[in-house]
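PROTEIN DATA CARD
Card holder: GNAT family N-acetyltransferase
Chain length: 188
Origin: Microbacterium helvum
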Amino acid sequence: MEPVTLRTARLELSLPEAGDVDALYAACQDADIQRFTPVPSPYRRSDAEAFVERVPQDWKSGIHLTWVIREGERLVGTIGFYRIDGKGSGEIGYWISPDARGGGQLREAARAVIDWGFAPDGLGLVRIEWRAVAGNIASARAARALGFRYEGLLRQALVGPRGRDDGWIAGLLVADDRTPQPWPVLEA
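Structure generated from the sequence above:
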């Protein structure tokens, strides 16, 4: 698959470039990114370099599609579809750099990615899954705000650099409205 650039009112979602290595490396020093995403831990500069090289290859395979999120010249995060099965399903994943959290960039980027994922001239998905390490409240709040429906706990199902974790799972169907739904794990 050829890479696609997506644009919103203030963001551009595109492939990472060599000039992004420093920003990727700095953001991925964040303890929450290392705890709640599958990035290597510790995260080295060489990991950022490998990421920049790998993303275009992943697009060619069509199984993992990752964008960096830019606000102007500033890289504020990454977002993508993973485990695209060719049968109408894929999983959304994202992280936002610590200095950009709370600014709404994640929801803005995610709406563009979800719209493209469901569009017939995009991926034509029927279902988008969201999974996160149990306890990742910030990611769960973002997914809920995007209209994902909480579906349950996956015991020891998420495997990352630190081992196995319980995971939360939610889904969004093409026909769903995208209003926030109740999530029992966020009712506290």
